[in-house]
Batch of 2 targets.
Target 1
Amino acid sequence: MAKRPPNIFVFMSDQEQAQVVKKGHPCVSPTAEKLAEEGLLFDRCYTPTAHSCPARGCYFTGLYPSVHKVFNNVCNAPKIHGTFDPAVKMFSENLRAAGWNLGLTGKWHVSDTEDPSGRGWDEIHPTATKTDHMGMHWEQWEAIAEKGIPGGPRQRGEIVMPGYDRRKLYGCSGGGMEDRGDYTVVAKAIEAMEKYAREDKPFFIHCGPTGPHDPYIVPQKYIDLYDPRAIDLPPNYLDDLLDKPRIYQRHHKYLWAQLGCDEVRESIAHYWAYCTMMDDYRKMVYEAVDALGLRDNTILIFTSDHGDYAGAHGLYCKGIPAFDEGIRVPLIVRWPEGIENPGRVVDEFITLSDFAPTFLDIAGVEQNPTHGASFAPFFRQSEVEGWTGEFHTQMN
């Protein structure tokens, strides 16, 4: 009788830099460090596109945006396409057909016409679905623009967006991690894991919290871990961008140049604080897997859809610029039964388009057309013959 494949639990944060989970980085992330010691850290994992919807499209399908056809945010008016090319298949459909339990909590955010259940998922606690739109429509922006920007002079940590509105980039929230929506996303994923663990079939859980996506508004407990005065500005912060595309220059001039150096340091402190809170959510998953006796036969994967410039090159968030801080994402994998010589760092290119073929490879089921390749061989060896030495991005 063939051995049952391992369970898979993917924790995909939103807008988390790869750099913050590396050992020695000033950002406090003990759970990530522990998992890297017990498994593998893939040091050069990249998103094919630094925008949530198309990036997640790459993850779910193994295809680049030019083929899966999700090019930008599907949940507001400026979308190019609101959903996938109808011919595209997701890895979840193959796993469901093979008898797997599949549970999704948190961000779906890849279609305004389809929900996860149509692609094989149990909708445990999904967000950013076709009925859960995010962001404003053009009509709302235009109404704001007609009234002008309210509120008087710019406040500390605030960005005034010409023709639109103003918003806080960072700040303090009341309560603790238990009072955030992401706590529910993680707790519901753990509940699903407990339920699936009682059934005699493998399970796949996709847990998609929204942090550390801007604005960096976090409980005081996490802010207190960092002293902005002790934070160095990014070494490329003073890049004048004159040798870069003009759109990079416009992003800086009309948005982020409003921040003084002290505000930049404060913003970085708040971003790291948010990442530390995400690490505490990872700890919830880590402890639950072990408490349920699933440690050996469950693959834990921690990653993100894209990074955040967080002051690098004088920029924030993600999008058009293709700098490392925005397109490199964390990837840590723990699987005691399947990883040889844990604690290794893999230095080969991995992209989000490699995830779908990896999952199907592990499950031993038929592959779909893909731009990626299974990175499962790295679980056993540090080098894989013929592995790609190039990586390209796509944007809109």
Target 2
Amino acid sequence: MALAELTAEVLRDDGTEVAVAHSLDEVRAAGTHGVTSDLALLDINLGPGQPTGLEVYDWLAAHGFAGRLVFITGHATTNPLVREAAAVPMATLLSKPYDVGRLLELVQVPP
């Protein structure tokens, strides 16, 4: 099972509504669902030939996304993309492998 599906399963088991997209094209195809979400959990590196999670965030932001943002990475903090993600205002950076408890804390909607 891919990490995105495993993460979604953990979040659903905790009662969180989850939509998974593996590419910017899938985000675009979801229409307003991604833009109106309370949280975007984006892997910085979406794989060869894919836009980065930063590019997905840029698209979401350009279309009105105002939710919380968590970038996930398995790369060293010296990677330029990781440094760029860490500089995004109000974004949280979560390193792989991540603690499930920490993930659940991050997705909880603040009161």
